[in-house]
Amino acid sequence: LAWEYRPPRLDPAAASYRLFTRKLAKRGLGRRGHETPRDFLARVARLRPDLAPPATAITEAYLRARYAPGPSRADLDALRSLVRRFRP
Question: Is 70 exposed, middle or buried (0-12, 13-18, 19+ CB in 10 A)?
């Protein structure tokens, strides 16, 4: 019975982006429920201009990996690498 009620797995791009937002949340920049990735990026860039370049790269990589038609494995690998190296 418990097997039927397992939550669905996040796709890999969403999981990487969630890790990115958690890193920022630990620094007081949590993503609000109504914010799109680009809205969140704009707020992060406004509040922490020093984080704008890596946050922009991560957000754009996420959008490519998650929403582009036929995203490549390279897109996902690039996103994972950017998130792994991100230190806010």
Answer: exposed
